[in-house]
Amino acid sequence: TYFSQGWYQKAILEYQEVIEKYPKGNKVPAAYLKQGISFSKLGENANAKLVLNELIKRFPESTEAETAKQQIKQIP
């Protein structure tokens, strides 16, 4: 909800909670992706790349990893 409303700082924290509480959950790749995009929207490009690369490393076969690769290309 925070993400869709543009509250990226709060969204980042909520996604981090999902990642930490449910490390093996099926929502973790999406949480990484949205967290990376949120950092990018805030202009925190280094953090965005870090999170998106972590997603690609941890879940290389996921559809989110493919999206993350495209997102990284768009970050300056």
Quick take:
The protein has 76 residues and is mostly helical. It has helices at 8-21, 28-41, 45-58, 63-74.
Describe the overall structure:
This protein is an all-alpha fold and 76 residues long. It is globular and about 25 Å long.
Strand and helix map with partners:
Blueprint: H1 8-21, H2 28-41, H3 45-58, H4 63-74
- Runs in which pLDDT lies below 50 for 5 or more consecutive residues are none
Mean pLDDT: 96
User: Roughly how much helix do the residues carry, as a percent range?
Assistant: over 70%
Structural class based on helices, strands and sheet pairing = mainly alpha
Beta-strand content estimate: under 5%
Key traits:
76 residues; mainly alpha; 71% helix
